[in-house]
Amino acid sequence: MQELINRAKELLADGTVARVLGWKAGDLPYNPEPAYFEKEEDFENFVYNGFCGANLSKYMIEASKLEGKTLVCLKPCDTYSFNQLIKEHRVDREKAYIIGVGCKGKLDIEKIKGMGIKGIESISGAEITDGADTLTIQTLYGEKTCSYADAMLERCHVCKGKEHKIYDELIGESKETKDAERFDSVAAIEAMSPEEKFAFFQKELSKCIRCNACRNVCPACSCRKCVFDSNKFDSSQKANVDSFEEKMFHIIRAFHVAGRCTDCGECSRVCPQGIPLHLFNRKFIKDINEFYGEYQAGEDTDSRGPLTDFTFDDVEPGIVAERG
Amino acid sequence: MSIETKEEFRPKIVAFCCNWCSYAGADLAGSSRLSYPADVKIIRVPCSCRVNPMFILRAFEKGADGVILCGCHPGDCHYSTGNYYARRRMTLLFSMLDYIGVENGRTRVEWVSAAEGVKFSTTMNEFVEKVRSLGKNVRLEDLRCRN
């Protein structure tokens, strides 16, 4: 982290960049938040640790409109989102100085709390300077430890790889964290009967409070005017009133990013109700891979997205019923 | 004295028909005096590609029991490529509806040209029969819209 801070200060001092986009310490030991750093003294609060899950690429949409270059710290999965935003002409590559930061998997505080570790005062072992193997947590009830891998976000267990797709320079080491198959959770639901599927999603989606956090955090959801903000539309900016609206919101949200979603997993990370929203996005990705060939959004900046492209012999929609 | 009537379930079907092929196909079915159930309500759209996934969900919300989209045969689109995009979109949407537990018999896409009055009528007969066997749509309806 010190290396990153030093390099950022250096680039800020020599005028290469006008500001730095990184993470600053939050009010709790586990909630760093995205922030701009414009002066040297601001860096006192700069952090980069296992809790810095936030994907900063979306902030570059606004930063692209500012004067001067912005230094942005991107993790390997964030670079996919950044590439996708370049493809959609939402960010300006010339306005960004990208430091690819190493990643050893990001932590999910809900998982730590789920292990019964409450009253957290401080956490060590999340600094990702070492092997990122164990976390030592000081709580009101004494010291507790847990394995780093057990506290990792779901998305890190199915990591797309620790290779940065776009960067100006790289700082920090990465560690492979993949230990599960990405589409297993989707396949498990597909294998259920319609009644079970319906009951499963009913249970999950009825938790939705329509805070719109999933939409706001999503790097692919970057329309200036959102269908869910339109007042001509009866589900705008209000809580879901019935099970239809719950499903409609989540289907449409996922559909709007279908073919553009890089599967960065931010939607599930920010959901205050813990709804596994990635299951929707991943279902679309799985279908796209099956029907139209393997496609990873954000892999490059010039290929055509699957929903803005076609071939003459695409599968017919009847395949859904045929495959049962 | 009360009269007990046992009404047969009549599904409500929304059919989105493209202006250039399927709507004309429906017209031909009519002028050829072919019959199809009156449960089918046709909505004319400029192209099958005009149909936003939201339209389909909204139809279910407002009480439709089945939604069918009819457009020109691939390759015959009035706008050259519209139905190819619609085909990809609908495949993904139907797959998603299946994934959340809505029976996949309630949604269908059929390519009907302006000369295929017979196909239009047989398709609609088949589809209505299918939806009737599935019964009322309760998984995607808005309780406020129930009548």
UniProtKB/TrEMBL annotation, chain A:
Q: What PROSITE patterns does UniProt report for this protein, alphabetically? A: 4FE4S_FER_1, 4FE4S_FER_2
Q: Which domain of life is it from?
A: Bacteria
Q: Which residues form the 4Fe-4S ferredoxin-type domain?
A: 199-229, 252-282
| Residues passing through the membrane, by range | none
**InterPro entries, per the entry:** 4Fe4S_Fe-S-bd (IPR017896), 4Fe4S_Fe_S_CS (IPR017900), Helical_ferredxn (IPR009051)
**Keyword annotations:** Iron, Iron-sulfur, Metal-binding
Q: Does the keyword Metal-binding apply?
A: yes
Its name, as the record gives it, is 4Fe-4S dicluster domain-containing protein
What organism does the record attribute this protein to? Blautia celeris
UniProtKB/TrEMBL annotation, chain B:
In its UniProt entry, the species of origin is given as: Blautia celeris
Residues covered by the F420-non-reducing hydrogenase iron-sulfur subunit D domain: 13-135
Protein name, UniProt field: Hydrogenase iron-sulfur subunit
Superkingdom of the source species: Bacteria
Recorded hits in InterPro entries, A to Z, give: MvhD/FlpD
**Per UniProt, which keywords does this protein have?**
Iron, Iron-sulfur, Metal-binding, Oxidoreductase
